[in-house]
Amino acid sequence: MKLGIHAYAYCSQWSNETLDLIDRVKNLGLDFIELPLMVLEDFDVVAVSNRLKQVGLNVVTSTVLTNVTDITSNNPEIRNKGVDYLKACVKATYDIGGTSFCGVTYSQHAKDTREQPTERTWEYSAECLREVAQYAKPLGITIGLEPVNRYETYLINTCEQALKLIDMIGEDNMRIHLDTYHMNIEEKSFYEATKLAGDKLIHYHLCENDRGIPGSGLVDWDGIFKALSEINYQGYAALESFVDMTDNMNTWVWRQLAPSGDVLIKEGAAFIRGMQEKYGLL
């Protein structure tokens, strides 16, 4: 299992001013950095690619869809913009040497709606993601669907729902991206959800129930790592705790959850490495 960290542990928005985080993550002994693609116009693929190669660090990318890129919108122009945006994210991932692109890629994040998703909603998402997956396949990119909690999406809250959409898409480079923060709200069992993902699991966000330092809260880490061991998980797993309180995206962090990003990484990574050793996943 490859252990890394999301850049938002340090910054609220990615740009060339934060390139030094790549060096910092490498020096902390982690395997990869997860980079957000929310603001593609500020994402310098040449600079990022060069820095990753210089320091010898792997990379994963992620994003969320907004109201102007919502592939479940009834407006075909918005759906088309969403497909174009996701394809651009796939291309950026390829250009920096990544092979995994994940996140809330199936519908608008934090969509303001009071309506239940319809079968047409699911069909819109599947149709659009099928086109993106077909574009990504020859580039060697897999796409991970991240189930998030009911307050952040009305479409995919659980691993079971992600599997349903993957089945509807019908492309073999579609995968699942689990997140313990959201699972703590939506799943009945961390163990069962992880086992259900099985060989479709490509990425895992390792968060405490309050997004603080892993091991300091209520998450069933033994259940998670027991399941990861049983499926022999060798993919990516990132610490995703938000230390920086920001208004640049909906992280909903209103208090300091760790003294600093370095403390979060040092203590969180030590805890996760201990769990890896306990369950034979080093």
How would you sum up this structure, described in words?
The protein has nine helices and eight strands. The chain has one domain (2-278): TIM Barrel. The mean pLDDT is 94. The protein is globular, with a radius of gyration of 18 Å. Helix content is 39%, strand content 17%.
Q: Mind summarizing the main beta sheet? A: 8 strands, parallel, barrel
Q: Structural class of the secondary structure composition?
A: alpha/beta
Give the N-terminus to C-terminus distance in angstroms: 6 Å
Taking Cα atoms only, what radius of gyration do you get, to the nearest Å? 18 Å
**Total number of β-strand segments?**
8
Number of helices: 9
Spell out the key features of this protein.
282 residues, TIM Barrel, globular, alpha/beta
Write the layout of secondary structure elements.
Layout: E1 2-6, H1 20-27, E2 32-36, H2 45-55, E3 58-65, H3 76-95, E4 100-108, H4 119-136, E5 142-145, H5 159-169, E6 174-179, H6 180-186, H7 190-197, E7 201-206, H8 221-230, E8 236-239, H9 261-278
Helix pairs in contact: 3-4, 4-5, 7-8
In short:
The chain has 282 residues and is α/β, with parallel strands linked by helices.
